[in-house]
């Protein structure tokens, strides 16, 4: 398994989770540092890094869900077509790398549609009077990530379109993963009944562990991504009026 495409995809999932956890820790540290008003946390380099960090986190979270789908699909295909030499390539590590790169590229296109509208608005920052070490009337440039209002007000290819599409993309894994998991379990049972080897380099117990892993990932994906995807779709289908969400076409 350590030399299979499944392991490579699983490593990709772990890398996505590790980055997103690190991003959460980073944001928590910044919240603590913001309490010290003597440091300009909104300088250009910091804000540029923060924007790219948000974009990459958005990309990897979406990719994470689809890597789970593809891992289940690869396992299903390896078992179902284990006797067909034409499908041997899907168990190779290079196939797992290709899967990771393709999903990363596709997820980047979705995130790029939103983050490409970001720009940094400039202002001036001056330290509070109680902050030592600064000369009199000292100022620095102050940058805030902004998105044009036109992007939010645009009916087509605007913020609501992005939220609706991204919401659908988040919901798809919660539908496909249970189906693939059931197919995978059924295929493993069928292989056992026929006395077939699930993999030439893998014991049956290892395959069962992989199936359990996919099952756990299915439940986790449904819990984590399903409600968020539904919320995104609703937000993309609605508009706010005086703090109340009204669906389009409703007066």
TrEMBL record:
Entry-linked SUPFAM superfamilies: Family A G protein-coupled receptor-like
Subcellular location: Membrane
GO CC annotation: membrane
Domain G-protein coupled receptors family 1 profile, chain residue ranges per copy: 1-251
Database matches in Gene3D superfamilies: Rhodopsin 7-helix transmembrane proteins (1.20.1070.10)
UniProt-recorded Gene Ontology molecular function terms: G protein-coupled peptide receptor activity
Keyword annotations of the record: Membrane, Transmembrane, Transmembrane helix
Bilayer-crossing regions: 7-26, 94-115, 171-192
Identification of the protein by name: G-protein coupled receptors family 1 profile domain-containing protein
């Amino acid at each position: 398994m350590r030399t299979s495409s499944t392991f490579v995809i699983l490593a990709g999932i772990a890398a996505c989770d590790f980055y997103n956890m690190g991003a959460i820790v980073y944001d928590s540290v910044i919240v603590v540092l913001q309490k010290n008003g003597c440091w300009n946390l909104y300088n250009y380099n910091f804000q540029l890094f923060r924007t790219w960090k948000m974009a990459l986190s958005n990309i990897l979270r979406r990719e994470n869900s689809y890597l789970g789908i593809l891992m289940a699909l690869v396992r299903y295909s390896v078992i179902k077509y284990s006797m067909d030499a034409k499908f041997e390539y899907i168990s190779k590590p290079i196939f797992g790398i290709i899967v990771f790169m393709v999903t990363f590229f596709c997820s980047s296109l979705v995130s790029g549609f939103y983050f490409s509208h970001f720009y940094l608005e400039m202002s001036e920052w001056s330290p509070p009077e109680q902050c030592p070490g600064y000369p009199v009337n000292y100022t620095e440039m102050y940058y805030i990530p902004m998105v044009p209002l036109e992007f939010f007000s645009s009916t087509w290819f605007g913020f609501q379109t992005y939220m609706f599409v991204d919401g659908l993309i988040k919901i798809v894994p919660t539908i496909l993963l249970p189906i693939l998991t059931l197919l995978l379990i059924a295929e493993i049972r069928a292989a056992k009944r026929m006395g077939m080897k699930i993999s030439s380099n893998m014991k049956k117990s290892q395959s069962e562990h992989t199936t359990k892993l996919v099952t756990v990932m299915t439940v986790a994906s449904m819990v984590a991504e399903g409600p968020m995807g539904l919320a995104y779709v609703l937000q993309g289908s609605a508009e706010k009026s005086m703090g109340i969400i009204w669906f389009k076409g409703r007066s």
